[in-house]
Fold:
Amino acid sequence: MSTWIRKTHSVETQKVEEFTGEGAYHGSTKQKAPDAPRPQVEAVPEARPATLERYLADGVARIRSFEACFPNRLRTVEQLAVPTQDEVRDDGVTFCWCPFEEAVRLAGPVTRSVLEGMRKGLTGGKRHVYIDSKIQYFEPGDLPVDSRLRHVDGSIAVRDRRVLPYGASVLHDMRARLEHGNPPKYMAYQSSEHCATGFLSRPLHLRIPELIPNFDAFDAAVLAARTTEVAHPAGAILAYDGLTVHWATPATSSGWRLWIRCTETDVEIVPSASIIECYGTVFRPRSI
Ligand SMILES: [Fe+2]
Structure:
């Protein structure tokens, strides 16, 4: 198991795959890849699919809907100087669910300065603090992940036989996430002018199913609500949480981008040995 990798990044060696919209991250519509990181246990309240458990205990056969309110908390922790393209490309080390202090020790200079900025924004209220990061080269239209659906991070996803009575292979327990009240906390950084995550920054009331098999209908509902969207400014560290709606947007021009996410969670996450190898892949829509 490795949570970091040090390598030389170049345009020639940037991994590219065709965009399918079915990525295992960011609002998956598929089962996670077999080697994707998984929560070890659901023993912590933060990860407990309490709605699904109630359904099964009470014999509820049909998924109900409810009035959800996504507060979309979003604040700027720090605005850093935007690094040069060479500085981003040459930063070397990237992370996948790496414990925070280990990441600080191993990081290249740009990443380390971001992590020191993130340190100031840590809430300290969760058992684990992890760092994910990617150094990616985009052509115009490329996406940093294989999905552009509006979603929340760290949803309570169940992928076992408990979801079978509902005709699904995965169910995200949206009601449990909203009712728990203390979702995972995140900070994100991105270095680029040309590929910015979109965020909602105002509360959004939405009637949604309590359990959802993917984020397709959720994405459409958020879009239809015509809410205010903001783009992640280059060089900014933003703080948000597991109730903040956001999504990947395609690159508008070519160039390098460093993306870093800090996750504070009660769930212990152990990535598999191989996932770090494909973690920086970019996704290119098929040209028409
Ligand atoms: Fe996300």
Observations:
- The longest strand covers residues 128-138.
